[in-house]
Model the fold of this input.
Amino acid sequence: MTTVTPATVTPATTTRRSASTVAARGKGRRATMTTPRAGGATRARATVRASGGAGDDVVRVMVNGVSGKMGHATACAVVRREGFELVPYALTKRAGATTDVLGVEVTGVDVSVEDAGEVLERAKREYPGFVVVDYTLPESVNANAELYVKHGVPFVMGTTGGDREKMLAEVKASGNYAVIAPQMGKQVVAFQAAMKLMAEQFPNAFEGYTLTVTESHQSSKKDTSGTAKAIVASFNDLGCGFDIKDIELVRDVESQTGKMGVPEEHLLGHAFHTYRLTSPDGTVSFEFQHNVCGRNIYAEGTVDAVGFLKRKIASKDPKTLYDMIDVLGEGAMK
Amino acid sequence: MTTVTPATVTPATTTRRSASTVAARGKGRRATMTTPRAGGATRARATVRASGGAGDDVVRVMVNGVSGKMGHATACAVVRREGFELVPYALTKRAGATTDVLGVEVTGVDVSVEDAGEVLERAKREYPGFVVVDYTLPESVNANAELYVKHGVPFVMGTTGGDREKMLAEVKASGNYAVIAPQMGKQVVAFQAAMKLMAEQFPNAFEGYTLTVTESHQSSKKDTSGTAKAIVASFNDLGCGFDIKDIELVRDVESQTGKMGVPEEHLLGHAFHTYRLTSPDGTVSFEFQHNVCGRNIYAEGTVDAVGFLKRKIASKDPKTLYDMIDVLGEGAMK
Done:
């Protein structure tokens, strides 16, 4: 049920700094209060609207995997986002990990020591209505989804891998609110969907065109970009007849900084894609590029997904399982 | 009712060369026969299927404006296309004009001498089921559409300008089969439609992004690209907040061959467009280009539209007025 491999025993402690700063970014004037918490940790301040009553318009987010790169980037986006509050503890597989997120200290609760389910139940009391963001590991995906469902915690699953079909089926059947998507970069998803729409509506519009695809990622990425594969599938429906194995993978620094124009500071974290379509007679060419440096686009997309999920919960939407296409479809409501 | 300004009297003569070659490109084996025609001209060979009966699967096309650049390019595409036959005469405003189209001589029938309606009636007898393609002049658009409707001739209107609203309303009310579209470049229309679909389905997905637009055309084109304007409208629905007047118009040869990469032989006829979207923090960029040299894409798209119209007529489709989106939507049937 838990996500982690056993590790050394480490007490879960939770401290939070700058909570008032975070709360102050929320819309409207708010008062904060500090309550004591069992377990030796300081309860982060519950946000209460100055107009009275519990501040349930504040979106509280627990980021599991906060010590990882994507988790940390997402936690930062939560802290930056107006009206959002970061829960100062999170499930982790690393004993005693504490992560600083723009001044908010998030304590990693080692689930080999504390029961992960109990941690979620505690958070439900302390941060009512909180949403989980999961950026853990492929091998934890299914167990984590089951855990969130069991405790009725809405979640955004940003972690890739695992048995997706099983997870989607189980989460859907449970009626637990969730956004599950392998690609959180909202604009990339929008472009990918636009190419799919074009292929569905105008099959073979690019019949006879020659396609070339080049993608560059950090050299540690060995496999071909999943996004590139998905977009190639649409171009093939448009009549291109392209073989996935002909995608050019750029992984060497020289080509990345030269030919692809990747900024040096992003060599270790980027996703550049170029698709070029040329007509049979060579007189017409189309070129599409989506070039992402760092993780900000994914982090912001994830926080958008959390906000989306909160609105769906508030409106008691009968649909409970969503993907990024659903999030994008409500773009006007952001 | 006619399209032209009076000119000197020139007898309409029609001769055709290489008709058998053209017919031989049609699908299936065909025999050809020559029949005499009133009016002193040689009737081009009617194509008869070897299996017997009239060869009504041959798509016959009259290109009005064949002496112009777009008309000529389209007539060439007709001659090249399997199963299509070029009607060897066409309405013209130029007295005595004869145009060679890949070996097929097309005689311009001066409508200040012969009645344009009678020419169409004659063509109905000699080239049953023929479709008109119109690449004439903006000032002829409305009169020509009325003429085709009056004589029940299906047509593809590639000419831009005129009172579009009036034409569309009248042609629709008439029930005359027609494709009317200001942009015949099928793939450009598909891309434009894809951006519109993206904007409709994912409003504000690119909120906060900065857009830059650069377009290059032959220096004789003074106004801003209509396609660029249409696509910018979609990007604005996606949240870009771009002012049409900020589109960069490239009309000087140096920038065209240098920065834009326009081949020298296409300086006098090209349409290059680049759209670049950059995220607020500069970490994400999207670039879309559609670069067209010459007229082939428009000519091929026009012939596709003719084929589409013939299928609609054959199936007695209750809808009779179409645009290029409709043509693209049937892409799989080409």
Observations:
- Residues 21-180+297-330 of chain A form a domain with the Rossmann fold fold (CATH 3.40.50.720).
- Chain A has two domains: 21-180+297-330, 186-294.
- Residues 30 and 49 of chain A are 4 Å apart (CA to CA).
